[in-house]
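Appendix B. Worked example

We walk through a single record from start to finish. Start with the input: the chain for Ferric reductase, Dactylosporangium siamense, length 183.
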Amino acid sequence: MNDALWYLARGTGVTSLVLLTVVVALGIANRAGRPAFGLPRFGVAQVHRDASLLAVGFVLVHVISLFFDVYAQLELFDLIVPFGATYRPMWTGLGTLAVDLLIALVGTSLLRHRLGLRAWRVTHWLAYACWPLAFAHALGSGSDAGAWWLRTVAGACLVAVVAAVTWRLSTSARATVLSGDTR
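Next comes the structure step. The output line below is what the pipeline stores for this chain.
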């Protein structure tokens, strides 16, 4: 049973990183204010929401499977408060911080209609902190941390986020130049 939990934790962890990468890239693309990836804005927004739900589900399974895994030896406290775990406390703590931010993102998204768009948008900027924390956690935690295939997946995730940021900045710069706005 323990091997099954460990494989489940590994698989859902990697899948979570890929899904979080998709979510961040789509969120960046949607803020550009024009169609992206061959989809209209509403399509990008819908895929962003759906991928977000999938990511949260996979992160939840990842955390629960590690909680019950005897090798990781995580306590309930370790799942909420960063840097207290006995297993690789630094890297596990980064993952815990990412989960804490993800909880804040989900909570504020569920309360978006009560918070107002401005407050929600300010809080939603936490996604830009959540992704690098999850990325660093993936590179430093677990038995696959140094494996070539994980480094390849992580590299592809990094390239995707950097490409989305670059595209977004070039779109903003081009729009600023075209509109004559030099602020």
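Two observations about the output. Residues 2-179 form one domain. Residues 148-179 form the longest helix (32 residues).
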